[in-house]
Amino acid sequence: MKKAKILLVEDDETQARILADYLTHKGFQVSTAFGAQETLKKLEEEPYDLVLLDWRLPDEDGLSLLPKIRESFPFTQVIMLTAFATVERAVEAIKRGAYHYLTKPVNLEELLLIIEKALRESRLQKEVELLRAQVEELSLPEAPDIIAESPSMKEVLRLAAKVARTDATVLILGESGTGKEILANLVYRLSPRKERPFLKINCAAIPEGLLESELFGHEKGAFTGAEKAKPGLFELAHRGTLFLDEVGDLPLPLQAKLLRVLQDSTIRRLGGLKEIKVDVRIIAATNRDLEEMVKEGGFREDLFWRLNVFTIKIPPLRERKEDILPLAESFLHKFARKHGKSVKGFSREALEALLSYHFPGNVRELENIVERAVILAENEIITREDLPPLLKKKGEEIPDLLKRLSLPEAVALLEKERLQEALEEAGGVKTRAAELLGISERVLRYKLAKYGLG
Ligand SMILES: Nc1ncnc2c1ncn2[C@@H]1O[C@H](COP(=O)(O)OP(=O)(O)OP(=O)(O)O)[C@@H](O)[C@H]1O
Ligand SMILES: [Mg+2]
Questions:
Q1: Which of 99, 134, 243, 446 is close enough to 200 for a disulfide, judged by CB 3.0 to 4.6 Å?
Q2: Does 142 reside within a domain?
Q3: Are residues 66 and 158 in the same domain?
Q4: Which domain holds residue 442?
Q5: Last residue of a domain, one of 85, 104, 135
Q6: Do 343 and 385 fall into the same domain?
Q7: Predicted confidence (pLDDT) per residue in 127-154, tens digit
Q8: For position 48, what pLDDT does the model report?
Q9: Are residues 223 and 260 in the same domain?
Q10: 305 in the same domain as 383
Q11: Are residues 409 and 348 in the same domain?
Q12: Ligand 1 centre from 176 Cα, in Å?
């Protein structure tokens, strides 16, 4: 086994020599320091398993040096030595992180026993740390801002964490508002490129003419108005990561150019001849069905295969209902803080309404709904009334359904829903329901019969 390394901190040279000789004789590798500064310097230069620390040092007392050692070198055990033993001092030393406390003159056999025990414990501690690191490796990444309670979202995070460590191109698919951008961020944060630039571009938001020069840059005079040469995002993101958001909206000519970068990692600025080597990790995202676009000729097949190396699909919120409440809670706290309101939770009905809604706009829609509710809330609890009307009814598919219906059909559907709601609220009492709806009881009866509700 490797010899354990001990740093002996003692300003009395004779004492130091006696102890050092003894410990070396017992099989330890011993170095000596005579003051606090020297101690810290030595610890920084190489790791020690244990420090024997004298209480009284020329430049700083050992007791104040002790916590500094423990904080910066948690795997280094410290045993304090002092000529003036008191119980208070012993307690203070242990409180500050000493493994043990001995009085001088030191009983060498006792010292040896304690050193061995301390070393055994720190070996164990290291093993535990190592195990913990391995366990963390297997578990979900640390991503406090991403909520993932559902098994499918947990799987998404696991995949993201795995691919993050490589340089592979990542394609993130998912409906609008499912969290594609937040996931792209996570991949970047967990990647070895995290200290390097992370640049984003939304391919759908920039006009085609500008997009090309944004991505690849231009030389002076490349086009009217190009008064200065400008590097593109690929050059700026060199050694870093580039997030191509809405990549499905990239116009065909630019798809060809992007393919070239992906194939040979070189770009040419607009109006330039020079081939510039770039090393950029690509994360792309889209809510479009790229395969379908390939079939229809809107997306290059070769580019699709280049991007489709490691694809992560984020499921829509309605398919991972376990995430709805934790997300709602977290948004509630965020917006309560933002708007300075003391809103603390949701009523049961509000929660039920949220759970049964189908969220065509996914997490972003939920976020907006909660923000609006927080603003509307009259007291500490968000009620069903604070949620938008669309959510108030359990008939969940309605909004989507309406889009596919003719006007008379849509009106009939809403009328029927509203009638049912009023009847429920009125506890089945028709006069009361008619009042709630602002119609006569006769009209109510007629309508109920019409919809087979009467
Ligand atoms: N799992 C999640 N945990 C916490 N917040 C989330 C989560 N998913 C999405 N969000 C939040 O929802 C909003 C929409 O997310 P994001 O912009 O990443 O979605 P997107 O898929 O890129 O949407 P779009 O297709 O519309 O661009 C953001 O405010 C984001 O912070
Ligand atoms: Mg987005």
A1: 243
A2: no
A3: no
A4: 405-450
A5: 135
A6: yes
A7: 777 776 555 555 556 666 899 999 999 9
A8: 93
A9: yes
A10: no
A11: no
A12: 8
β-strands 77-82, 198-202 pairing: unpaired
Residues with CB under 6 A from ligand 1: 146-148, 174, 176-182, 287, 327, 363-364, 367
**Tokens coding 342:** 């003391």
The helix (H) or strand (E) run that includes residue 290 is: helix 290-296
Contact present, 16 and 40 (Cβ < 8 Å): no
Q: Which single residue is written with the structure tokens 């020079």?
A: 274
| Separation of CA 44 and ligand 1 centre (Å) | 44
Mean pLDDT value across the chain: 88
pTM: 0.61
259 in a structural domain: yes
Please give the tally of structural domains in the chain.
Answer: 4
**Contact (Cβ atoms closer than 8 angstroms) between residue 9 and residue 51:** yes
User: Does the structure show a pLDDT above 90 at 89?
Assistant: no
Is there a domain that residue 143 lies in?
A: no
The residue out of 348, 370, 392 marking a domain boundary is 392
Report which protein residue has its CA nearest ligand 1's atom 25. 176
Q: Are residues 92 and 225 in the same domain?
A: no
From residue 384, how far is each of 282, 284, 322, 373 by CA, in Å? 43, 38, 20, 9
Cα–Cα distance measured from residue 444 to residue 447, given in angstroms and rounded to the nearest whole number? 5
Count the Cβ atoms, other than its own, within 10 Å of residue 169: 19
pLDDT value of residue 134: 59
- Residues near ligand 2 ion, CB 5 Å cutoff: 180-181
Are 373 and 328 contacting, i.e. CB atoms less than 8 angstroms apart? no
State how far Cα 114 lies from the chain centre.
44
Query: Tens of pLDDT along 203-218?
Result: 988 888 889 999 999 9
Contact assessment for residue 246 and residue 176, using Cβ atoms and an 8 Å cutoff:
no
pLDDT over 80 at 46, yes or no: yes
